[in-house]
Every structure is written in structure tokens, then in C-alpha cells.
Fold this sequence. Notes:
Distance between the termini of chain B: 38 Å
Helix content of chain A: 40-55%
Strand content of chain B: 25-35%
Order of helices and strands of chain B: EEEHEHEEEHEHEHEEEHEEEHHHE
Strand order of the largest sheet of chain B: 5-4-1-8-9-10-13-14-15-16
Shape of chain B: globular
Number of helices of chain B: 9
Strand order of the largest sheet of chain A: 1-2-3
Helix content of chain B: 25-40%
Number of helices of chain A: 7
CATH class of chain A: Alpha Beta
Number of strands of chain B: 16
Number of domains of chain A: 1
Largest sheet of chain B: 10 strands, mixed
Largest sheet of chain A: 3 strands, mixed
CATH superfamily of chain A: CBS-domain
Largest interface: A-B, 20 and 20 residues
Distance between the termini of chain A: 13 Å
Oligomer: heterodimer
Radius of gyration of chain A: 16 Å
CATH architecture of chain A: Roll
Structural class of chain B: alpha/beta
Amino acid sequence: xxxxxxxxxxxxxxxxxxxxxxxxxxxxxxxxxxxxxxxxxxxxxxxxxxxxxxxxxxxxxxxxxxxxxxxxxxxxxxxxxxxxxxxxxxxxxxxxxxxxxxxxxxxxxxxxxxxxxxxxxxxxxxxxxxxxxxxxxxxxxxxxx
Amino acid sequence: xxxxxxxxxxxxxxxxxxxxxxxxxxxxxxxxxxxxxxxxxxxxxxxxxxxxxxxxxxxxxxxxxxxxxxxxxxxxxxxxxxxxxxxxxxxxxxxxxxxxxxxxxxxxxxxxxxxxxxxxxxxxxxxxxxxxxxxxxxxxxxxxxxxxxxxxxxxxxxxxxxxxxxxxxxxxxxxxxxxxxxxxxxxxxxxxxxxxxxxxxxxxxxxxxxxxxxxxxxxxxxxxxxxxxxxxxxxxxxxxxxxxxxxxxxxxxxxxxxxxxxxxxxxxxxxxxxxxxxxxxxxxxxxxxxxxxxxxxxxxxxxxxxxxxxxxxxxxxxxxxx
Lengths: 145, 322
């Protein structure tokens, strides 16, 4: 099965100058764990995830999260998120992208997700424009059928 | 690719009942109406056109605003129907439109339409950037349905203007002042919604002659084609080349749900144009799609085979011929 048969044709995304507060709002509303970031031409130039935002709010905290014994005050996160809320997503997004093409097959996608630890991969056309998103759960759902 | 814009999406809910006892003779009692069957689906004119196009394999992207839990349901329904969705999320809750259809009065349903959430300024700014970007990939834009509260009545005019600047053909499938204001921009096709008021601005459209006059006026202002419903089973098409009557020769008793028929009409015309048909033949396919849609309980008939079967029922003739 190919990416174009598996993907959600949901083009929910943000632009480079979208403020962090809007990204958090959109992640919450859309139910995605990450969003593609587009340039003026609509090309995917970055990805912003919940993890990137936590990392931006508290550098080093993501690594600490791996050890469940440590939990700092949530006030600090709140304060920091407010501080960066107006800053553009371009300052915090990941630019080293993993993208899929519509004709990539399911084995390739599964391999990418496992090796890179990804929950979802944007699918782009020849012009690098977003055409859909393959989520790990979509793949699991199809494989389980 | 055909872009559709639905600024005020809805979750359409349909209830079928044996009868609709809307009597006020018992003011002290609540009126309980039991529904034997119900259906719900993503709606709004643009969304319905996109759903129809996707079922015919025509590439389409639906744009607009989603909000709240209802917005999530609308999105899931659209994605499940193969439509590509590119919405702006805003605070609030999308509307739910209720249609109650009583047995034997299927062509005359009871409709309750909510207003929908207001669009924040920031939401509109994000939408316009998305719209401009998607126009670069579009062959045609369909602007469909009512405007949400607080949206300026010039909104559709501005969207038509931007589409024309990008060299993209426009279809305005809406009613009232927002539709009338697009006319000076010369959309390719105007399908006015005259359910609430049989008027186009200052012009009445209650009779066939009034519809022709209104259509001729729109064409004189630069509109390429005007298509206005006349009674339940007819439409009148006005273009610079002439005036045509489109008629579906079927009894009203065959109708089960008329709500999506206009959207199937517009979707069918666009499918026809995409296949290279001229406007008249595309309108024939649109009428067949509307007819097939009216004859099923679901809001839209998405079966090309069922639509093809209706084609012989559609009569198109220059106005005045019998």
C-alpha cells in the first residue's frame, strides 16, 4: 500500500511566522502531535511538535522526562511558555525533515517511523507542497485489517 | 483542482418522522416527535460540492473554518469521504443544521439553521493567506453558503476578486447580499440561493419571467452564467448566448430529501466541465445529479451510475420552446 492510500488528506499546518501560542492552540484543536511548517510558497520547510515546544520552554527538560522520577514545578513551564508565546514558530521548529512521497510504500514508511521514532510523516508532492500526513496509527490500523 | 470555500460549515442532521404535529393547541405540553431514522454528515454548500466532486474522482480541497467538537466531527466525515481538508481552527463550536422530513411531505421539510461561530480577525487573516496559497494550484473556486456572524457582506466579493487576480475561475453558490455584491466582479457561474427570499438585491425572482430578467441583468454585469431554481423541478440558465429552461420530468412523490440537490447540481456541472463538456451539457449532468440526489435519503447521491440513469429525465430547451 502506498502513502497516498494511507494518508489523511488533512493539510492542517502553520506558516513560518505563526506565533508559538497559536501552534499550541492548533495542536490542541487538531489532535495532531506535530504540524508541518510552510513557507510563503506552501512548501514544507519545518516540523513543530509538542516535544519541540517543551524543549523550547525548558531546555534539557525533554531529556529529563526520560527519567520519570524528576518533575520540576509546572509554574516554570507556564511562565516560559508565556514568554515564548509570541515568538515565531520558525525559531523552534525542526528543519531536518523526514518527508514521504505519495508513492512511497508502507514498508518504507513503517521503517522510517521506527528508525526515526516518528508518530507521523508529512507527505509532499514534487514541489514539496503538503498533500497529506501519514500517522503511525493509520499504518497500524491498515496493517491490522 | 477545484477549491471550495465554506466559511460557515455545519453538521447536517436529518430526522425522518411519520408526521410533524406543529400545532400550538397544547401550549401546556411539550411536543414529542419520535424519529424512525436519522443521518448526519458534514455540510455547508462548499463542503457538499467537494464531497460530490471527490466521489467523482475530481481533485478538490475544502477550505473554511472549523471549531470545537462539531468541527472535529465535520473534519472526520470529510476525510472519510476522500476530500482534502485545509481548514482554519477557531474558538467556539461549528453549527448544526437540523432538517425534519415528514412522510409524504419530503419536498417540504422543516429546517432549523444555527448561526455558527464568529470569525476572529486573526482567523480571517490566516484563512486569506491559505486561500491565496491554494489559488496557485486551483483551476476553479466555489464560494458556498452563508457567511458566519460578523463576516462583512463584501467577503465573497473580495474572494472572487483575489481568485480572478490569480487567473482562477469562480462559482458563487450563495444567497443574499454577499452573493449580489460579487456580481460586478463577473464570476463564471452564479447559483443564487433564494430559499429565504425570492429576491436578488432589488430584483424579484418569483416567476420565470422575473428569473430571466434577473439573470439577464447579472449577465449584463459580466457574469458568464446565471442558474436560478424555478419551482422544485426546474432551473433557468441565462448566458450571453441565450436563455434555457432545465426541467426534470419526475413527479414530486419520488423525492426523499431535497437538501443537497442544489449542491449536487453545482457539483455535477463542475464534473461535466472538468470532463470537457460545454456548459449546457454540463448543466444536464448537474440536473441529473440533483435529481438522483433528491431521490435518495442521504444528502447527496454519490453514485455516478445512478446519476447517468437520470440523464434521460432531464430536458433542456431554449426558453419559449415546448
